[in-house]
Write a structure and sequence with these properties.
Layout: H1 3-16, H2 32-42, H3 56-68, H4 76-88, E1 91-93, H5 95-100, E2 115-117, H6 125-140, E3 144-148, E4 158-159, E5 164-165, H7 169-187, E6 193-198, H8 204-209, E7 220-226, H9 228-236, E8 239-245, H10 248-252, E9 258-261, E10 278-287, H11 288-302, E11 306-309, H12 310-315, E12 327-328, E13 335-336, E14 341-348, E15 353-354, E16 362-363, H13 365-382, H14 391-400, E17 403-408, H15 410-416, H16 424-452, H17 456-459, E18 461-463, H18 466-471, H19 474-477, E19 485-487, H20 488-495, H21 500-504, H22 508-520, H23 534-538, E20 555-560, E21 569-574, H24 576-586, H25 594-597, H26 612-623, E22 633-636, H27 642-645, H28 648-654, E23 659-664, E24 674-675, H29 677-681, E25 684-688, E26 694-698, E27 702-705, E28 708-711, H30 712-721
Parallel strand pairs: 2-3, 3-6, 6-7, 7-11, 14-17, 22-23
Antiparallel strand pairs: 1-14, 2-14, 4-5, 8-10, 9-10, 11-23, 12-13, 15-16, 18-19, 20-21, 20-24, 25-26, 27-28
Helix pairs in contact: 1-4, 3-4, 4-13, 6-7, 13-16, 15-24, 16-22, 16-26, 20-22
């Protein structure tokens, strides 16, 4: 431990009364897979590949130094000490921050921001290609990016300027896909993209089925923008119109069926009536239930598309008065407006479990709140060193200063407290964890606003239009009229549906906080977001469970990309709670065996032991207090019945979620990042040799091919998907 780290511990012990070391982490060594991920992804190295960060503590100190440098010079040492302490206590900035903060001397063109959304993709060749260029620059900087592609006219529509018929949105998505693969291959870090698509677009079925084609759109996650009208049509077995904004000629033709829809995301070129509605041509009418079955069968077989309840997203957006959201970052936890950007960070909940695996196990709420407060300041400071490549992105993040603080290790922490994931008790704990994060974060936001100023959008005045009044009728109840002007902080604190939850909470302190936010403003418009945290969980958290999830399994394999290797490599990993249990119960035992991992206490829950409804219930418990969104995957076994599976998203809709994703291991479709040995054992891979001979082997068997050893499953996947040898 360095002298600076020791100083940080002393400062925090004196200022908070909390011991600096109160967790098992000091006695549990990082497993090899964890240390390897840190070394490959987050450890700073020079151009020759030589390590600049001596160890993980050095990585923390580099980040703390970079973030403390934002503070006034006379306060930098103080905040460096507090930031370092928070990092040791489980505050883990997202991968882009860990990798790039304080790294300017070695990689000056990278960003500390994880999440961005493209500007609206225009329905023209020039506009599409301009977005490809912007996306390429964004991905090159290390940021993920999301786009809505249902702004593009459907396949077969006439393009008057070209005198031809368009090939449709999916063909243009292929261009973005190839660009992303090229950029990520050159830079070494896999590019991340999200493509969203409106449920009423005429090509929506093609979008849903896109990944059934081997190797297509593999640089994308895909999600449908689902509306409340569509879900009700599914429930009532109603018809559903597939539509797209009409041209002038189409709107005037007696042969075309035209409907009027609210579509604020379309450009001014759309034909609008005096209500602001857009004239849309009806291309086809189908049964909503039929389209629903197409979506659910694809999700069952291919784990996509995801499910974004776009009405819920916009109605509960803190910035409801100035944004229309149509896309998210690649994993869905950050719904963002055009050119929106957001940085992330997660708190490792296992750090706050005291007396684990005993009947007196508990959660240290005081230390948790202290870490949240310090971490909030750290993440706000990241805005100042964002490194975003586009001016519109930089302007957006400086104007709203949104960040997304979340947590990881929920499943591991519950296990350490002997609480089964998905149980009623686990829902209570999840609700409180999310509430304390939100409450403490906004209180810190008030303090930062007083010290440094609120987010600029808070002080801007907005005219109350009929559209805004329709979105929030409570304004009329308070005597506000169309044409009045209110500051952003009032519209944000008093009238956003999310913030009004604090008023309904019935807590006097919450009511006081809302009043302070209305009067003072806040340093940021958004505070919380629960990300998937895959590699930071595995590395810096020693494989604590991912984000809000339970552990995938307690012993499994992770398929990782290795530079210079022609397929993914299978790496064995163990859950953090299993390592912690061994440390507490029998630290001198021999290395963990599969038999031991399968004979753990009943409260050791893994992902496929949780029912789909329990997955949704956990997400709903947290979503209430998360002002952005949550990336969560409901894992189901391969043999889970389809008829039961297809109701998962309907249940998510009824619980008021903003989105939902499922994963069912399907060996016929693809290999996931995480795999269990028994799944591979039951997967048969067929290879056809040059002479026509067919060789069939189990997925977990090793094969020598092209001078390298590969698992059969990973080799089969690489050849089928077309990425063999391209890493």
């Amino acid at each position: 431990m360095s002298a600076n780290t020791t100083a940080a511990n002393t400062v925090l012990e004196e200022s908070t009364g909390f011991p600096a070391e109160k967790s098992l982490e000091k006695s549990i060594s990082l497993q090899p897979a964890s240390e390897d991920i840190w070394d490959k992804k987050y450890r700073l190295k020079d151009k020759n590949g030589e390590a600049v960060d001596a160890d993980i503590e050095a990585s923390y100190e580099r980040v703390a130094t970079a973030l403390a440098a934002v503070e006034d010079e006379d306060k930098r040492e103080f905040w460096f000490n507090r930031f370092t302490w928070a990092l040791q206590q489980g505050a883990i900035p997202a991968g882009r921050i860990i990798s790039n903060a304080g790294a300017e001397a070695h990689k000056p063109a990278t960003s500390t921001i994880n999440c961005t959304v493209s500007g609206a993709v225009p329905d023209s060749m020039d506009g599409i290609l301009s977005m490809v260029r912007e996306a390429g620059l964004t991905l090159k900087a290390g940021c993920g990016i999301g786009y809505e592609f249902s702004t593009l006219r459907p396949k077969g529509a006439y393009v008057s300027g070209a005198g031809a018929y368009t090939s449709g949105p999916l063909s243009f998505m292929d261009i973005f896909d190839k660009m992303c693969f090229t950029v990520s291959s050159a830079g070494g870090r896999r590019g991340a993209q999200m493509g969203t698509f409106d449920i009423s677009h005429p090509d929506v079925a093609d979008f849903v089925r896109a990944k059934r084609e081997d190797g297509r759109l593999r640089q994308f996650n895909l999600s449908c923008l689902i509306t409340r009208d569509f879900m009700e049509a599914v429930k009532n077995d109603d018809d559903w119109d597939l539509i797209f904004p009409a041209t002038t000629g189409e709107a005037e033709s007696v042969d075309e069926r035209i409907v009027w829809r609210q579509m604020p995301h379309f450009t001014s070129k759309a034909i609008r009536n005096d209500k602001g509605e857009v004239a849309c041509k009806v291309y086809k009418t189908i049964k909503a239930q039929r389209l629903w079955d197409v979506i659910m069968s694809s999700t069952y077989d291919y784990a996509e598309p995801g499910f974004i309840l776009i009405d819920e997203v916009n109605e509960k957006n803190n910035n409801w008065f100035c944004e229309d959201v149509r896309a998210t970052n690649p994993c869905g936890e950050q719904p963002l407006p055009p050119y929106g950007a957001c940085l992330l960070g997660s708190i490792n909940l296992t750090k706050f479990v005291r007396d684990p695996f005993t009947d007196s196990a508990c959660f240290d709420w005081d230390t948790y709140r202290e870490v949240i407060s310090i971490f909030t300041r750290m993440l706000d400071n990241v805005v100042e060193i964002n490194g975003l490549p586009l001016k519109k992105q930089r302007d957006a993040i400086m104007d709203k200063r949104r960040h997304g603080m979340g947590f990881l290790g929920l499943g591991s922490a519950l296990t350490m407290m002997k609480v089964p994931y998905g149980s009623p008790k686990s829902l209570e704990i999840t609700d409180r964890i999310a509430y304390e994060m939100a409450r403490t974060g906004f209180q810190t936001g008030i303090e930062l606003a007083r010290e440094k100023g609120s987010a600029p959008i808070m002080e801007r005045e907005f005219e109350i239009t009929p559209e805004l009044m329709a979105k929030q009728p409570a304004m009329a109840d308070d005597g506000i009229r169309i044409g009045d002007r209110l500051k952003g902080k009032v519209l944000w604190a008093k009238y956003s549906n999310y913030m009004r939850q604090f008023a309904r909470h019935g807590n006097i302190e919450d009511a006081k906080m809302l009043k302070e936010l209305e009067e003072t403003g806040c340093r940021f418009t958004h505070h919380s977001s629960i990300a998937p945290t895959g590699t930071i969980s595995l590395s810096l958290a020693n494989n604590a469970s991912n984000g809000i999830e339970p552990s995938f399994a307690h012993h499994y394999a992770r398929n990782v990309i290795r530079e210079g290797k022609k397929t993914k490599e299978k790496v064995d990993v163990f859950s953090y709670e299993l390592l912690a249990y061994r440390e507490e119960i029998n630290a001198d035992a021999m290395p963990i065996t599969d038999e031991e991992a399968n004979k753990l206490p009943s409260y050791f829950i893994s992902a496929d032991e949780v029912t789909p409804k329990q997955h949704v219930d956990i997400q709903a418990a947290a979503q209430k207090w998360v002002d952005s969104s949550i990336s969560k995957t409901a894992n189901v076994p391969t043999d889970f019945p389809y008829e039961d599976f297809k109701d998962i998203y309907l249940y998510a809709y009824e619980k008021g979620l903003k989105g939902c994703t499922t994963f069912r291991f399907n060996p016929e479709a693809f290999q996931g990042v995480l795999v269990k040995e028994e799944d591979l054992e039951n997967t048969m891979c067929k290879f056809t040799l040059d002479d026509g001979t067919v060789v069939e082997v189990k997925g977990n068997e090793e094969i020598e091919y092209d001078g390298e050893m590969h698992t059969a499953a990973n080799l089969f996947d690489a050849l089928k998907e077309g990425y063999y040898g391209k890493f």
